[in-house]
Each structure stands twice: as structure tokens, then as C-alpha cells.
Amino acid sequence: MALTDCVDDADLAAQHSPLMSPLVWDLAHIGNQEELWLVREAGGRPGLRPDLDHLYDAFQHPRADRPALPLLGPDQARGYVSRVRAETVDVLAAVDTAPASSPAPELERAERLLADGFVFGMLAQHEQQHDETMLATHQLRRGPAVLEAPEPPAAPADAAVLPSEVLVPGGPFTMGTSDEAWALDNERPHHTVDVAPFWLDTVPVTNGDYLAFIAAGGYTDPRWWTEAGWRHVQEAGLEAPLFWSYDTAAGVWTRRVFGRTEPVRTDEPVVHVCWYEADAYARWAGRRLPTEAEWEKAARHDPASGRSRRYPWGDADPGPEHANLGQKHLRPAPAGSYPAGAAPCGARQLIGDVWEWTSSDFAAYPGFEAFPYKEYSDVFFGPDYKVLRGGSFGADQVAVRGTFRNWDYPIRRQIFAGFRTARDASPSDDGRG
Ligand code: AVJ
Ligand code: FE
């Protein structure tokens, strides 16, 4: 509600970028999905407005076409989502959300949705995913600033003296999950992956690091780019991250952040770069992007116990000391922040701050089963999408964990995405030499 109450009705119905829906579409879509999956499918109730389904079905209408639809107006949408939520609370009071009594595939569909409260978790995540999308719409929106948030905490004293990279030991680890109650279908099932030893950046690549790539002519040298990336840089005229401008009078790069223009802060993780830019930077630096399995091993593997944790710091849910999540701050925290959120390998900020591009295509894990609908993940598997991991300052903790998988096209930059780089370790690297 905070993301929609801060602008007027015309603004809510406007399309701020062809990449995004009008904010009023996201708002009613959140309610419509909740009605569809929770109230009707799991709760077995007739629902409120099944006639609206087609308007808020993302697969029937691409984002660019949504402003022309006969959508609910802002007040109608607010009324609709609050009536759906009242029904949700009523369903919650009436149903059994105990863990499943038999293996998932044997259960009736509604029973399976309700076991462990999965459908409630799924819709909470869906709402928060759209809240992050709506925050990205706010960042694209022109005009004066309407969102306010406190600055993230200052970097700890040791941020300046951290090693640039950490060693992640080789060997098998458990990737994905079969027992995290609210994990979505693409995170399942757990499986063993053997990962060769590698070195990973301790912290995400910063604006300062990225400025060096720009200054070195990174955007004009085809050596660093894949063929598709080089074509894209030229066609799209890319020369810096999205929302950056060069102030020729002052001789500095500036960045527009939710309606305010400021000098680029060199100690912050870079954000709003596409996969092609991340990949080119890594090559220029003599490195590469980590694979998705490498990222997850760095974030979850505990060499002491041999098991995979829920989060880098352990199994406890995220707290403000662990990670920059939940739109509490409207920017990434300085690189090296959140020592309490460090992984066993020593890497920091794997969760929160910026989504991290990996080198991997979005693919099904062995034994994958689409649930509850193919359009959540199944239809996106394949070489068109790259995986991002870890969540951003705009993502809520209910929708981020060590196993969570996000994906997007390699050209997308409006998402809160950055990256860190990696390199192979030689088998004799033991982190002491
Ligand atoms: C997982 C973030 C790629 O926003 O397209 C929202 C989440 N799926 N509604 C997206 C989603 C359906 C999805 N991502
Ligand atoms: Fe959605």
C-alpha cells in the first residue's frame, strides 16, 4: 500500500516504462492471484471476482498492453485486494495447515497446497515479488521523489581490509531443497553437485570497480563481450549502468536514485547492470561470473558439518544484522557490510543488497516437478534466461533464501541486479598460500 498511496491516481494508471505494468495493475494482480490460488483453489471457495482473471493473467497480456485494458481503478483495486485479504484470513482460520501426512504427489491438490501452509507462503512471496517489481517501476518513474527511507548502516571498520577474494573448497555439496516448506518448485528437489575449488569475490563488484572498467574503455572494446553482448551494447548504445549520467561540467558520474540525482558512490555495489555488462566486466578483470552451483555452494555449504544451510550465516531467519532486505533502505549498503551475515567461506552480502548475476541458464533440477502451475517456472527454463541469486534491498525476506532462484533476460537492467566475479582455483590452493 505504501508503494501505491504515495502517488496520485493518474500516476498509478500510467505506464512509466514499456517494461513495466501500471502500478494499479500490479496491485490488483496481487489480489487476483491470491483469490485464484488461495481462496478458490486451496480454500475451495467461489471467490470474489473470477471475471477479472483474464485482465490480471500475465500470460494473456504483455506488460506493454496492460494500460489499455479495462483495469480496476485505484480505489476499486484497493477495495478488491482488501476484500480478498479478508477472505484469505477467513480461509486460514478454517483450514488445516499441518505438514503433509503422505508424500506430496499422493495428496489431493488442495491438500497439497495447504500442507505446511505452502499456499500462504507462495502468495506472500508472490506479493513481495511484485512489491520489488513495483519498486523498480518507481525507480523508472520520472518526476520528484516520493519514497523515503533511512540510509543503510555505515560499513564496518574491517570493510577496507577484507581480502579481495575467498576460497571455496572443492567437493560435493547439497544444492536445492526438499524440506524448506515454502521453497518454490524450481528450488526442488535437493541433489548433490560436485563443485571444483574456486575463488569468489568477498563482496559484490562496486561502483568504484565498475568505473575503472568504464575508464579503461570497457564499453568500446569487443574483446570483453560475447558476440550477442557486443551486438547489444552497440544497438542499445550502452555506456554505463542504467540511471547513470556523466556530468561534463563537474567531470563526475551521477546516478538517479528514486527521483534524486547524486554523485555515484564508489563504495556501493554496482546495480542496474545487465548480464552482458556483468560478463564483460568479469572478462576485463581476468575473471568470470560464478556458476549458479558455485554461488549456492559459497552461500550454503558448511565445511564443518558438510551440510547446506538455509542462509550464509546459518538456519536462522534473516535479521537486520544479517542482510539488507525488505525495502528498509532504498539502496545497497556499502561493500563489506553485514559481517554477521558472512558465509563460512568469508563472503559477505550474498543475501540482500543486489541480485547477483550468475553464468548459468535457468534450468530444471533433476527430478523437477512443476507445482502448482507451469507458468511459475517451467515455461521459462532454457537458454533465454540467466539465473540471479541472493535477493536485493528491494526483496522481502519471505521471498529470499539460500536456495531461491530468480531469472531474467541477459539484457535486463531495470531490476536491482549487480554481480561478483570468480576464478578457478588450482587443486593445491588451500587458502593459506
Ligand atoms: C521470479 C521475479 C522472475 O516477476 O516475473 C511474479 C516472479 N511470477 N508473478 C517475475 C513472478 C509471477 C517472477 N520472477
Ligand atoms: Fe505475478
TrEMBL record:
Residue ranges, compositional bias (Basic and acidic residues): 295-304
Coiled coil region boundaries: none
Pfam families in the cross-refs: DinB_2, FGE-sulfatase
Residue intervals of the DinB-like domain: 2-134
Pathway the protein acts in: Amino-acid biosynthesis; ergothioneine biosynthesis
Cofactor(s) required, per the database record: Fe(2+)
Location of the Sulfatase-modifying factor enzyme-like domain: 163-423
Chain positions recorded as gamma-L-glutamyl-L-cysteine binding sites: 63-66, 408, 412
Gene Ontology molecular functions: gamma-glutamyl hercynylcysteine sulfoxide synthase activity; iron ion binding
Keyword line: Iron, Metal-binding, Monooxygenase, Oxidoreductase
Family matches, as InterPro entries: CTDL_fold, DinB-like, DinB/YfiT-like, EgtB, EgtB_Actinobacteria, Sulfatase_Mod_Factor_Kinase, SUMF_dom, SUMF_sf
Enzyme Commission identifier(s): 1.14.99.50
Binding site for Fe cation: 29, 126, 130
Top-level lineage group: Bacteria
Known catalytic reactions: gamma-L-glutamyl-L-cysteine + hercynine + O2 = gamma-L-glutamyl-hercynylcysteine S-oxide + H2O
Region described as Disordered: 295-323
Keyword Metal-binding: yes
NCBIfam families: egtB_TIGR03440
Protein family (similarity comment): Belongs to the EgtB family.
Function as written in the Swiss-Prot or TrEMBL entry: Catalyzes the oxidative sulfurization of hercynine (N-alpha,N-alpha,N-alpha-trimethyl-L-histidine) into hercynyl-gamma-L-glutamyl-L-cysteine sulfoxide, a step in the biosynthesis pathway of ergothioneine.
Protein name per its UniProtKB record: Hercynine oxygenase
Species this chain originates from: Actinacidiphila alni
